[in-house]
Amino acid sequence: MYVGFVLVLWPYVESSGPLYLSDEPQFFGFEDDLNSVSSVQGNPMVVTSPSASESKAIGCQNQDYVRWNLGTPSRTLDFGFKIFWTKLPKEAKESLIVGEIWGEDYSGSWQDIFSTNLFCDRSGYRLWCLWTGVPTGHDRCISSDIVSGLETNRWYSIRMTADLKKGTYRVYMDGVLLASLTDIVVPDDVYIDFIRLGGGVRGEADFITYFDDVFISFLGPMPPDQQWSVQITSSIKESTNPYGVVNVDSNDNLTVNALQISGYVFNVWIFDGIDYSSNSTITIPAQSKGTQHALYAVFTNTNPKLISTYNWLPFQLIGLIIIGIGGYLLWVHKKQES
Ligand SMILES: [Ca+2]
User: Fold this and answer.
1) For residue 331, how far is its CA from the centre of ligand 1 (angstroms)?
2) Closest CA to 206 of 15, 31, 64
3) What's the gap in Å between 65 CA and the centre of ligand 1?
4) How far does residue 62's CA lie from ligand 1's centre (Å)?
5) β-pairing verdict for 227-234 and 244-249
6) What one-character DSSP code corresponds to residue 55?
7) Per-residue pLDDT reduced to its tens digit, 129-188
8) Rounded to whole angstroms, how far apart are CA atoms 149 and 279?
9) Closest CA to 78 of 222, 271, 272
10) Which residues are CB-contacts of 114 (< 8 A; sequence separation ≥ 6)?
């Protein structure tokens, strides 16, 4: 009977295993609750308000976090998310980690590859810094004008890029490059193994931070000197012009077209994780040289099939059959006893 019960519930508690990166960004909006993450710590809450898009987001309080484990460790990562702070560090030694990219060495020890952290120093002065602990500690702080202008109770888009081959780490907010760590010599045997959001809070016990619209992919190849690059992908392959990685001279704009595809309608462009435009033709203004960007075209199927809604049905039926057989055997057994 117990086996039957577990099988009936199984489709509801299924959570994803490791994440396999590809050039196409994978999006996680928490609409399927926490099934898209590899593991959680504490009690991250799935909430309907605030949400950055669609119906749900997650909230992490204090040491709660969500984590995605990479099925194949990577030397590059393009990681974006929307963040909503309800409280920022404001007293000496309070801190709040914004996003973290970790490796694991051969002994299972965590390697702090790249994190970005908001904190107050001993005098209560708020800083927002990038940090790597590999091979030795390096940090770079974001300009104090930006830090002092941060607001609570609104959404920001954050993007963190890591290229361990070039030793380059960057943080963007709402499409603007905030700060970089460059020319870090990363040993060849260091790889990104997992990513975390939430957690890492020190201070009072009421830091609640919400996250939504997480995207994760490989980072495209570095552009040549004096150029910027954008990796153009789409929910339907080859449906934009141009498609793939495009390098652009540092002073030049780039115009991109979403094509008309039978059975689909163009929905929106997402640039570095931000909903950019619903016009099918857009022009991206010149970006800082040496920076790598991600542009994703979302198409919607005009004739959606509802198959996925019923994916759980076979498992449910197997569970019911096993319950039925178990009940029958129990009945036969009782009948023989009596
Ligand atoms: Ca969402």
Assistant:
1) 48
2) 64
3) 17
4) 21
5) antiparallel
6) S
7) 999 999 999 999 999 999 999 999 999 999 999 999 999 999 999 989 999 999 999 999
8) 31
9) 272
10) 100, 101, 130, 131, 132, 160, 162, 169, 181
Give me the helix-helix angle, 313-337 and 2-13, nearest 10°: 170
Segment holding 282, helix H or strand E: strand 281-284
C-alpha 29 to ligand 1 mean position (Å): 4
What does the alpha-carbon distance between residue 88 and residue 94 come to, in Å, rounded to a whole number? 9
Ligand 1 centre and the CA of 256: distance in Å?
A: 27
Q: How many A from CA of 244 to the centre of ligand 1?
A: 27
Instruction: From 275, 228, 278, 279, select the one nearest 251 (Cα to Cα).
Output: 228
Note whether 43 and 206 are within 8 A (CB): no
Q: Which residues contact 334 (CB under 8 A, 6 or more apart)?
A: none
Longest dimension (CA), the chain: 90
**Beta-carbon-side half-sphere exposure of residue 329 (alpha carbons within 13 Å):** 7
Distance 154 CA to ligand 1 centre (A): 15
The percent of residues in the chain predicted with pLDDT above 70, rounded, is 91
| Integer Cα distance of 130 and 102 in angstroms | 14
SS (H, E, C) 32-50: CCCCCCCEEECCCEEECCC
Q: Residue 314 burial by CB count (10 A; 0-12/13-18/19+): exposed, middle or buried?
A: exposed
Where does residue 227 rank: exposed (0-12), middle (13-18), buried (19+ CB within 10 A)? middle
Mean confidence (pLDDT) of the chain:
90
Cα of 273 from ligand 1 centre, angstroms: 13
CA 156 to ligand 1 centroid distance, Å? 14
Q: Are 14 and 35 in contact (CB under 8 A)?
A: yes
Tokens encoding 274: 């931000």
